[in-house]
Amino acid sequence: MSIAIVWLTIFVLSVFVGIEVISKVSSTLHTPLMSGANAIHGVILLGAILVTVHIEGPGVIVGLIAIVLATINMVGGFVVTDRMLQMFTRKKTPRATTTGGAK
Amino acid sequence: MIPVWAQFVYLLCAVGFILALKGLSGPKTARTGNLIGAGAAVVACALPFTYLDNMKNVPLILVAIAVGTVAGVYGARTVQMTQMPQMVALFNGVGGGAAALVAVLELDEILPQGDSIGWFTLVATAFTIVVGSVSFAGSVVTFAKLQELMTSRPVVFPGLPIAFGGVLIASVALSVVLVRGPELWIGVLLALIGLVFGLLLVLPVGGADVPIVISLLNAFTGLTVAAGGYVLSNTVLLVAGTLVGASGTFLTLLMANAMGRSVANILFGALKGGSTLGGGEASDRPVRSATPEDAAILLAYADRVIIVPGYGLAVAQAQHTLRELVDVLTERGAQVDYAIHPVAGRMPGHMNVLLAEAQVPYEQLQEMDEINGDFKEADVVLVVGANDVVNPAAKTSPGAPIYGMPILNADEGKQIIFMKRSMRPGFAGIENELLFDEKTSLLFGDAKDTMSKLLSAVKAL
Question: Does A2 reach chain B within 8 Å, measured CB to CB?
């Protein structure tokens, strides 16, 4: 059971770190922060890969679906957060274009 | 067994995620933080390919990653800024779904071990399956509500509380069954129950509360990833998932506070029978409507103007025209500020993103607490596509759904100009007394259209 205690320790400390690092965020950044946090849990892709590399039979299909979904979460999350943050950091240009396109 | 060097790299990735969140908490470091997070995620996902032997399905896995990347980038690049909340909801939902699928597969993997499976591993597996499915189904409903594919009003039906309670008991009971005697079909059944659970959880939530629910589901997904990390004995998943779970929960509370709501009320308010929304009907009481020319005169000769932007401004894509108007007024010597309510738009900070996109100077954006005392000095308060965040009912009528929400004191301005599409109430579905105030003039019409007319009228003076 000692190994479980190690995991529990990591878990509890991570909870405190998670709250601590965002405790002083201004409401301006709430949306990008939520989106960025959402991208971080896209690391479930790693879990999906770890499982899929050693299954055989029909389960592979499920594994591949999990990989596609996790990749969308991870890649889409980081790209969309970056797009939002560009809005805050972009230099003043004379005239903005429409919202639809990237950059 | 993972080699020590790889475990060390995993640790660095976990540190990368901590730095990413820390960076995202400050405007100057946010973009770097996001990039650090992306880098850590890529390294962590590439790592298994360097130390695992006899891997199967590698070509298929690479194809799946390519498909997901293309889909993710396409979605993230093409989404309109106004639709950001539902996009985040969707990305969150697929992550939750992936976590649930991974847990089901892992359950199938460990079954042959029979009695030697630790009970805690099975608890974590059940948790990941249920909560991941809840997150997936809930996020899809959230997406549908925000995208207006379905009504954004609470969907309640008789017997909903009983159904909700039944699903809750069923998922707990089945989890216990799974821990006592693990079987694959129980895992699959748990996933299906989780989907129903997610639907029932989000359907009764009213439109204005949806952003808070997105944030909550985001935290849920984080926790499922953390539990998945335990099941797969992977520290990166545990740390990253826990970070998101904890910070997401905290962020949810911050948002709920900003709206003067309690999370429990949002989730279970409709279940208790009290609707979380008002009537939603347009009123037929008399109001004073004005022409753009009347409003232009008010604005052009004002020394102090405060603008209250809301979601309607963003939907009409009028923020660029608004900025031009503000530039003209500033040139005429007026002091103009934007009053940003914490939940203006559809989620906290959303309006700041939309205005930043229209190149509104950062220093003109004033948070609610900074500007609320200045409304008394404002010659004109221009409300564009906002409604609930300036509704005095939040202060005065205890029965109102928004009662207790901090609002912008627009009612203290000397003159108020309201730009509205129609007399329909805002997202919370309740009437706004400010519309009937004698200081208020209404400009009906599409915000962009009206804003352009207003701009030319001011220029003509």
Answer: no
Which tokens is B342 given? 């914490």
Chains A, B: CB contacts within 8 A come to 379
- Given CB atoms, is A25 within the 8 Å cutoff of chain B? yes
Based on the residue annotation, tell me whether B303 is a catalytic residue of this protein.
no
B127 phi and psi angles, rounded to 5 deg: -60, -45
Take residue B75 and report the two structure tokens written for it. 């979605």
CB contact under 8 A, B247 and A37: yes
3-state secondary structure at position B341: coil
Distance from CA of A6 to the nearest CA of B (A): 11
What angle do helix axes B184-202 and B119-146 make, rounded to 10 degrees? Answer: 40
Residues shown for chain B: 461
Q: Rg of the Cα trace of chain A?
A: 19
Contact indicator for A22, A34 with CB cutoff of 8 Å? no
pLDDT in tens, B90-147: 999 999 999 999 999 999 988 888 777 888 899 999 999 999 999 999 999 999 988 8
How many CA atoms, within 13 angstroms, populate the side-chain half-sphere of residue B74?
6
The tokens of A25 are what?
A: 């965020």
User: B289 - beta bridge partners?
Assistant: B442
For B21-75, how does the pLDDT look when each residue is reduced to its tens digit (9 = 90+)? 999 888 888 999 999 999 999 999 999 999 988 888 999 999 999 999 999 999 9
Tell me the backbone φ, ψ of residue B267, rounded to 5 degrees.
Answer: -75, -40
Q: Does A26 reach chain B within 8 Å, measured CB to CB?
A: yes
Q: Which chain B residues have a beta carbon less than 8 Å from that of A61?
A: none
Instruction: Give kind and range of the element (H or E) at residue B137.
Output: helix B119-146
Q: C-alpha distances in angstroms, B95 versus B141, B365, B424? A: 15, 34, 36
Q: Burial letters for B277-303: b for 16+ Cβ neighbours within 10 Å, e otherwise?
A: bbebeeeeeebeebebeebbebbbebe
